[in-house]
TrEMBL record:
It comes from the Bacteria. InterPro entries: ArsR-like_HTH (IPR011991), HTH_ArsR_DNA-bd_dom (IPR001845), HTH_Metal-responsive_Reg (IPR052543), WH-like_DNA-bd_sf (IPR036388), WH_DNA-bd_sf (IPR036390). This is Winged helix-turn-helix transcriptional regulator. Residues 3-100 form the HTH arsR-type domain. SMART domains: HTH_ARSR (SM00418). The lineage of its organism: Bacteria, Bacillati, Actinomycetota, Actinomycetes, Kitasatosporales. Gene3D superfamilies: Winged helix-like DNA-binding domain superfamily/Winged helix DNA-binding domain (1.10.10.10). SUPFAM superfamilies: Winged helix' DNA-binding domain. PROSITE patterns: HTH_ARSR_2 (PS50987).
Amino acid sequence: MLTVAPDIEVLARFGRALADPIRCRILLTLREAPAYPAELADALGISRTRLSNHLACLRDCGLVVTVPDGRRTRYELADERLGHALDDLRTAVVAVDTDRTCADADTKRCC
């Protein structure tokens, strides 16, 4: 059965989000538990401005959502199945070949 265009677009959007190591780290961190931006920035060792740009990309891609919590805003994965998908993808890639790198690893494109 042929994959329809919307399916391809969704996978491409997910792939673009995963193309940046910082966004991968954000998703893997949120896979463990929801977090506040200040906590994420500290945990990842990046500026809040840089984190904000990556979170905006992940929100635009539909992978993370904001949850109001009083005067603060918490981030979490848009769907718990994304955490499972990240685990499955990581495990599958590691099972295939652990010493390969992508030729386009330096490409910095957002969703």
